Automatic annotation (TrEMBL):
The lineage of its organism: Bacteria, Pseudomonadati, Pseudomonadota, Alphaproteobacteria, Sphingomonadales. It is found in: Membrane. Keywords: Membrane, Transmembrane, Transmembrane helix. The chain crosses the membrane at residues 9-40, 52-70. It holds the Pfam family NfeD. This is NfeD-like C-terminal domain-containing protein.
Length: 152
């Protein structure tokens, strides 16, 4: 186990392992830790007498720096998505026409969305009425009544 005595090699192995883990379970986070581990591998090559506490502190610091740089990068250059509302269920519901289950008022009510029920607020609507979802406040849907057709 002679290789255990070579911290630069261990840090570089950790960097490769973290990089592979990022590829297997993508989440765009482990890549930043892999970069920090690779930097520590290089630093322990330059400073072979760096104690373990210093190495761990350096890894923590470089991890923070890498994550902050990565966050800034993704803010400046966002990744385009074919379905930008994929993980925003409420935004996907805007415009849907749903049925009132419990009368809706400014104080609350419930509507049926698909096979579930959601809390809702909006202008008065009796049970059984059809309303359109216009947005949400927290986990409560904002609804409005459908326009009535003129009677001839």
């Amino acid at each position: 186990m002679d290789w255990l005595q070579h911290p630069p090699l261990l840090w570089l192995i950790a960097a490769v392992a973290l990089g592979i883990a990022e590829l297997v379970v993508p989440g765009v986070f482990l890549v930043f830790l892999a970069v920090a581990a690779a930097i520590m591998g290089g630093l322990t090559l330059l400073f072979p007498d760096l104690p373990l506490a210093g190495q761990l502190l350096g890894f923590a610091g470089w991890s923070a720096v890498a994550v902050l740089i990565g966050r800034r990068w993704y803010q400046d250059f966002p990744v385009e998505s074919a379905d930008p509302l994929l993980n925003d269920r409420v935004a996907r519901l805007v415009g849907e026409v749903v049925t009132v289950v419990e009368p809706v008022s400014d104080h609350g009510g419930r509507v049926r969305v698909g096979d579930g029920e959601w809390s809702a607020r909006g202008p008065d609507a009796p049970a059984g009425a059809r309303v359109r979802i216009t947005g949400a406040t927290g986990a409560t849907l904002c609804v409005e009544p459908l326009p009535t057709l003129p009677q001839n």
